[in-house]
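Researcher: Structure prediction, please.
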Amino acid sequence: MTSLENPADPIETVTAAKPPRIWKFWGTLLWGLFAFTAMFLGQITVVAYVITTSEGALDIASLKALLANGTTISLSVIMGLPAVIAALWIAIRISRTPFADYLALRWPGWKNLLIGIGSLIVLIFAWDLLSKSIGRDVAPGFMGDVLKSARADNALWLLVLAFCVGAPITEEFFARGFLYRGWSESFLRPVGAIILSSLVWTAMHLQYDLFFLGEVFSIGLLLGYLRYRSNSTWLTVIVHGINNLAATLQTIWLTGHS
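Model: Predicted structure follows.
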């Protein structure tokens, strides 16, 4: 007599992978504060190093001059980049979403790039006309002072690298990459996310007066719209970099003729 055995199938324990998530309003706000703090610490590390290695006693006037030095500012801006990327990587890693996907790090296409550059030219031209019509300088005095000190240190190349590459990547990854992504998928929706991320970005430029802060905010709105239109943070990085390069070249020209 032959008995047929039908052994029970082995019990397999399947652990379902948790789906990726996008941080919404409060998660984006809290992780954004974490990333901003990381950026600040990265920048302040340079300032602390410069102060501790400076020769002689520092009074208030010399300390202000040291902190406003073009080389110091350039290095601090550059050091903020790896700090922000590390902080954002932690937040995005916990969300289980690919880093490039979360921050929309994709090429925008030539049409959107041309639209972005053209829109920026029109916006900056309008602000320059407004500045001249009310008798204001088209470039903030802060930029001129920083550039002159960087030139005196033979560090103009470092300032260009910091302002035209380091700052755009740092600020766009943070504002239009991380903040916009989370807030646009919250109750704010894209319009609210564009406005709020632009306000945050403007607050990161408090070295300027109210007039130039208004210009910064309008540029932030444009960059936010471009981020929404193209779904590409690289587009806003490029347009931001072009804006900073144009402002730097304009300041170089103006200080060279002053």
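Model: Residues 58 and 64 are 9 Å apart (CA to CA).
Researcher: Thanks, that helps.
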